[in-house]
Every structure is written in structure tokens, then in C-alpha cells.
Amino acid sequence: MSTRLLSQNHALVGLPDLLRLMLRRDRLFLPSWMVGFALFALYVVVAIPVAYGDEADMRATADLFAVPMSRVLIGPAYGFENPSFEQFVTNGYGLYFLLLAALMSILVLIRHTRADEQTERAELLRSSVVGRHATLTAAVLIAVGANLASAATVVAVLLAVGGYAVEGSLLFGIGIAVTGIAFAGVAAVTAQLSEFSRAASGLAGMVLGAAFVVRAGGDLAAVGGSALSWFSPLAWAQQTAPFVLNRWWPLFLPLVLAVATFAVGFALSA
User: Fold this and answer.
1) Which segments within 50-163 are labelled E, that is strand?
2) How far apart are CA 49 and CA 68, in angstroms?
3) Residue 137: partners with Cβ closer than 8 Å, 6 or more residues away
4) What is the pLDDT of residues 198-221, one digit of tens each?
5) Chain centroid to CA 42: how far?
6) What SS3 class is residue 247?
7) For residue 35, which of 156, 159, 144 has the smallest C-alpha distance?
8) 10 Å Cβ neighbour count for 31?
9) How many beta carbons lie within 10 A of that of residue 128, not counting itself?
């Protein structure tokens, strides 16, 4: 009885132990994602100059990436009227870094919440002194840390290999991180809406798919996006326009979404 009361009265009891357990389980899973982000960044930073030779040759074909159908696939195409390598890489391939961050967050959250409950691993943990919100809190911390670490590897590649400017590189990396954290919040909610991990992942995936469709429709309408673009969490980081406008304020939008969805997730988990 005393153990049960302690668990109920202290919602985060056992959090450090759960963090260590989750990190141990993810000792290969999370580093693999970080290496993947770094390799993808390295590929685009190195491949674009090799493919085009110099910026003048790249500019000759850049108009093809700013047409409406191309904007569906790459985003609002900021800076493509006369792009540098920095602008071409971050505004041409940035969307795919955001998608990877969102997918990683969804998988991490569902893996450590709904999947553990489905396999009854969570019930085994709750038989000891574990607070009501300790499991979800640990999963959220893992997801936040994974996004920050993955974004840091991208920024390191941009700075060390590409020689890109510091402000634009940091803006690009932070945009990746906060987008991933926002979708971790989405997964925190969907994990509470289904008994099965696949269904929870599917619901979060549907939200991600809807965000892509809304963003595509908004970016299709005009260079720089339209009002519709701003209804998509995938568009907010792209609207910072690294190395073109260097706007920081759109990054508050995914942070607001993350706080709101985490709050809903914790309320549902109670």
C-alpha cells in the first residue's frame, strides 16, 4: 500500500531510473538516427557543389526548383531567384530534414509509451515505485534530447564541411529540432488514443501526412508560401528562410504546439 501511495503522490518517482533504462535500450537506435542526419547533411553539402561545379552553373537551373510543382516537393523556395550553395541546400532540402526529425520523434515516443504498454513491459515497471507521469516524461526527454543532438550534428556538418555562416546554420538546425519536438508532442497525444502501438504511430503519421499536404497546397500557390502554408507545422521552420531572411520568430510556433500537445498527452495519461 505504501508503495502505491508513494507512486500516486509523486508523479515523477523513478524518472532517473527510467531514463537510464530507455537510453540503454536505445544505445543503437538513437545513435543510428544521429549518424543518418549527419550523413544526409554531409551528402547534400558535398554533392551540390560537385554536381553543379560553381554557383553560376547552379543558378542557371535553379529556376526549375521554384516552379509550382517543385515547390510542392521542396517548400516555399526562398532565395531561388539567385541562390548560393547555402541557400540551395537549406531551402531546397530542408523539408526532408524536417520529415526525418518528425518520424524519429514519433517512433521514439510510441516505442517508449504505447509499445511498452502493449507488450506489458510498462506494467512490469509500474509494479515497482514509478510515478504516474514518469514514463511519459522520460520518453519526452529522450525525444527532445535526440532532436537536439541530431540537429547539432547537422549544424556541425554545415559549419565544418560546408563553411556556412553561423547564424543561418544555427537557424536551420534549431528549426529541425523544434519541428521534431512538436511532432513528439503529437505522438504523446496519439499514444494515449489507441491500445496498439501501430495504431498510435499511424495516427501520428496521419497528422504528419496532413501537415505535408497542407504545406504543399500553400507553397504551390506562391513563392514564399501562402496563408495556407502557415497552418502546417512542417512549414514553420521553412518560413525562417535560412541564409535568405534569417527569421527567428516562426520557431515559436512549433514550440507552442509542443507545449500544448505535451500538456494534452499528460492530461490523457492521467
Assistant:
1) none
2) 25
3) 12, 15
4) 999 999 999 999 999 999 999 999
5) 19
6) coil
7) 156
8) 12
9) 11
